[in-house]
Amino acid sequence: MNVCCICVVGKSNNPLYLRVFQTLEEEPALKFHYIAHTALDIIEEKVASRKNTTNSADTNLGLLFPTEVYKIYGFITSSKTKIILIGDETEVKDSEVKNFFQKLHKILVDSLSNPFYEYNQQIESPHFEQQVQGLVDNFSSNKSLQKKPSGFKTRNNQSMGSMAFLPTNANI
């Protein structure tokens, strides 16, 4: 599976991190925002239905829903931070996705443990970016697709710390 987007959402459903790794040329990167919002609703439903079961300690929510082009997976931490993985339709084992989420969770915990990080604020650490990129490179089945979408760049040519894409020809 190729990772298309990773989104980290705080306890109050505030975006902490969203990065698009690949997208179809004709597809706006903003589409991943909509997919992530839809995934949040499904995560809340799954968490509510798990509260009364013995499996409520499991943080991996598995496949949330598929679309025509993507498969969306979810993970929730003990602090109610949600991690959403949007990948292409390539088949992948649940154990591989679970392992990916565990590694990403470790990277997230390490980053949030930084004494200079303000709790519940957007993650803008270059070290976090590098570690996430390395994890995605190792996980994705096709390394050649690990580019930012052409025709789009983020503010300051970085990941979506501001949560907004701008066309490359936009004047700021």
TrEMBL record:
Residues spanning the membrane: none
Biological-process GO terms, alphabetical: endoplasmic reticulum to Golgi vesicle-mediated transport
GO CC annotation terms, alphabetical: cytoplasm
InterPro entries tied to this protein: Longin-like_dom_sf, Sedlin, TRAPPC2L
Signal peptide (UniProt feature, chain positions): none
Family annotation (SUPFAM superfamilies): SNARE-like (SSF64356)
Recorded family membership: Belongs to the TRAPP small subunits family. Sedlin subfamily.
The protein, known as: Trafficking protein particle complex subunit 2-like protein
Organism: Acrasis kona
